[in-house]
Amino acid sequence: MSVYLDAFSLVLQPQVLMVIFLSAGFGMFVGAIPGLTATMATALLVPLTFFMDPLPAIAAIVTATGMAIFAGDIAGGLLRMPGTPASAAYVEDAYRMTRSGRGAEALGACLFFSVIGGITGTIVLSLAAPQLAEIALKFSSFEYFWLVLLGLSCAVFVSPGPPVLGLVSLFIGLTAALVGMNNPTAEPRFTFGSIELLAGIQLVPAMIGLFALSEVLRYYVHPTGSTRTPPVKGSILRVQLGNLRRYPLQAMRGSLLGTAIGALPGAGADIAAWISYAVSKKFSKTPEKFGTGHVEGLVEAGSSNNGAISGAWIPALVFGIPGDSITAIVIGVLYVKGLNPGPTIFLTNPQMIYAVFIVFLIANLMMLPLGWLAIRTAGTILSVPQRILMPIILVFCITGAFAINNSLAGVLIMLAFGVIGFVLEENGIPLAPAILGLVLGPMLEDNFVTSMIKADGDFLAFFERPIAAGLGIAAIAVWTLPLILRLVRGSQRNGEAT
Fold first, then answer.
1. How far apart are CA 121 and CA 127, in angstroms?
2. Distance separating alpha carbons of residues 239 and 446, to the nearest angstrom
3. Which pLDDT score, from 0 to 100, does residue 161 have?
4. From CA 363, how far away is CA 62, in angstroms rounded?
5. How does pLDDT run across 214-241, given as a tens digit for each residue?
């Protein structure tokens, strides 16, 4: 009990509370601007942490990260410009709800269930960190290969319309992921002699192009078909209690699944959001509504991405293994501050660890009022006429794409994918699977090649480990069962006809 009291006394210092508040505003601002991701917000804070005590330094990163992940939903819901890759999983539903006059409900769901996911993940982090970290350490390249393959299966489930169109979009994303030297052999592929393409297709410029620039092009190509988006009016949070009563299982499932996926090194909030959205659609009673402006997917995926933030700290604190790019930065800060992560940190500095858990809770609770204010403020954007708004969006697109590496290559990638996105949507092909292919393509190739090297080319080795075998059977079942069921139903219909 004394450890908890010591932790509270560390957190409830004016300096720490002021850092949490300022970091919350900073993270909200950065996350809401397309192209400026949560990882960038964390990286920008690192130089400032050198002048802080250990707890305020960690508190600044914890708070800014959670705020930035949620704030990415604001731009996605209002302008169809997902601020973070995690927001891209359900941007279609959020944007369509806004276009139909339900923007307050859509963004309120993103906010409310992000808080629920973050709090759930923090509770799991504080109670079961060592146990979950041990499970996460059992994942090798074999398990990750099957996990990524399951993630790619989401393309079939997250796509509105025929599954084959989702697969077309997925393979476009996977093909784009082949570009560059980011492969196990570091061999330049599909670069066509371009130095800029050696680094591969950058995810954020591609995402901005597919979602935002394609929307700008559509406005200018079909100006008469573009309607003004209704302003964000109505209750932002009150209606969410009704959504919680309607979808309690989805909220809890998304929170726990996000925490579990976040605990896997290298997974993170992006994969958690995609998988949770696919799971939500798979088990929904109304899967046909997903992608048309349905709140159910926002409930589950929104709680999942913030749960993953907490989960990523489990291997980082217990074993010093980063769960994602953000916790990789955090581990460096911990070492600088003399708080070497690992099992002994729970014995040598338990009050500091519990103080971090308390900061997680405070940051998530603070997200409610600050998120409400951010939604109300950002909603005024929609009152601007589209003939003025679209050029402003274009400027944001160019700025966000350039800011990734301060390179014109990001702008060119954005322009190319803007045209691709416009052509795809004109032909009824969904965009989300293409982003999924870009995110997971490199992970799939790296883990497959690494596993084949370990197994000396024996594919049966992918089923020799218990967890890998379970994931492999699940992945094969996801891909083959729908085909088998379709064949069985077809034969039954033919039998009845004869």
1. 10
2. 44
3. 63
4. 8
5. 878 887 887 755 555 566 677 778 888 8
Chain-centroid distance of CA 420 in Å reads 22
Interacting residues of 174 by C-beta distance below 8 A, sequence separation 6+: 437, 438, 441, 444
Tens-place pLDDT, residues 115-138: 999 898 888 878 876 676 667 667
pLDDT beyond 60 at 450 = yes
pLDDT band at 438 (very low <50, low <70, confident <90, very high): confident
Contact 451, 141 (CB under 8 A): yes
Task: Report pLDDT digits (tens) over 10-26.
Answer: 888 888 889 899 998 88
